[in-house]
Amino acid sequence: MTKAQHFEWLLSLADDALILGQRLSEWCGHAPALEEDIALSNVALDLIGQSRAILTHAGLLEGEGRDEDRLAFFRSDREYRNLLLVELPNGHFGDTIARQFFFDQFAMIRYGHLAQQTFDLEIAAIATKALKEVRYHAAHSADWMIRLGDGTNVSKTRIQESVDRLWPYIGECFEAHPILDAAITSGAMPDCKSIELTWKESVSAVLAEATLILPTDNWKQVGGRNGLHTEHLSYLLAEMQAVPRLHPDAKW
Amino acid sequence: MVTDPVAEVTRCLYDVMDPEIPFLNVMEMGMVREVVQDGDVIVIRITPTYSGCPATDVIAEDVLAAAKVIYPNSRTEIVRTPAWTTDWIGEEARLKMEKHGIAPPNGQSADKAFLLGKGRITPCPRCKSTDTHLVSAFGSTACKAHFKCNACREPFDHFKCI
């Protein structure tokens, strides 16, 4: 893997966490119950913390003097490498929980591999820490899937709709990509198929307990890893980046 | 004149408190991994607790400020390996937590019982009853979960095992 590919790969890991963290933080003060408000904000904080560490590492690797803030606040949507799944609007609570459940299961498997690999030891250290946190996130979102799925008729219908609506965005998690291929060749990541199989196994188990139906694979929407995003990312970035861009030399 | 900067800087760190748990210092929290001398610089190696813990930056600043009073040529360094674990919190610190109404981390972090839904018993820090239940795995700070005692009905924080 060339240095440029390595940098790009790190951006994809950091951006998944950063964008989902920013999205989730929109729930702060708006969640259906106080405990959920605190839980979603805590998860958001963990994700943003993980992205900070990865961006700092990416900036040092690149060697052009860009720190975490520079990378987070001064890249445009086309330079972001996150999955489309994480930039989607929060929707209702069920939509947020379903997206979180799918992502947490993916992040848990991915961090599990990253913690073990020896290609990039800094990422292994960050992943070891992140894995401890993501296990809590995954337990929380899986618990909600079961509660909503195996709950009332209304909650079951609505969470199944959320699952179905998000499904076209899941394929991107396991989609081959030149940067990812380079990471796989370097031994930094296992192949996409094995991650997908592990993911499907754990997701199916939870959905079965939740009495929900796993949708069948059909068309999938991709583009995030190439910087081709939905319109939603631009609005998210505008909000996240407005202040640092207005006062680019401010220190706090 | 500072004769033994490593020892004196180390000693001063026992007065740097965790801003979120102000009765515990950074040494008791196991956040300071080591204090070493590198030429004429004193390096304090800190391990962050949670990736997103807003207190980490404040703690690093407080540690540096305290060290500089003793030895101006000090700096801090973030060490991520091995990852911080609640296993590094000492027995005395656990007792202090309990005294202040926070149920300390119980057992070893490697124990995944909690995540598998087979909750370990977390006794109430006030009435010591073992009849308690988890309200939410996410509490007032990143490191705590929210519990309630079924016996005395008091809600309390539990320092999560990680």
What does this molecule look like?
The complex is a heterodimer of chains A (252) and B (162). Chain A is mostly helical and 252 residues long. Chain A has one domain: Up-down Bundle (Ferritin), CATH 1.20.1260.10. Chain A is 68% helix and 0% strand. Chain A has helices at 3-25, 34-62, 68-73, 84-87, 93-116, 121-149, 153-166, 178-185, 192-209, 231-246. In chain A, α1 runs antiparallel to α2 and α5 crosses α7. The relative contact order of chain A is 0.15. The mean pLDDT of chain A is 96. With 162 residues, chain B is an alpha/beta fold. Chain B folds into two domains: 5-78, GMP Synthetase, Chain A, domain 3, CATH 3.30.300.130; 92-159, no CATH class. Chain B has three helices and nine strands, in the order αββββαβαββββ. Chain B has helices spanning 5-13, 55-70, 91-99; strands at residues 17-18, 21-25, 32-38, 41-46, 74-78, 102-103, 132-136, 144-149, 155-159. A four-stranded mixed sheet of chain B has the order 6-9-8-7. In chain B, α1 packs across α2. Chain B is elongated. The model of chain B has no long low-confidence stretch (mean pLDDT 88). At the A-B interface, α2 and α6 of A face loops of B.
Summary, kept brief:
By secondary structure, chain A is mainly alpha-helical. Chain A has helices at residues 3-25, 34-62, 68-73, 84-87, 93-116, 121-149, 153-166, 178-185, 192-209, 231-246.
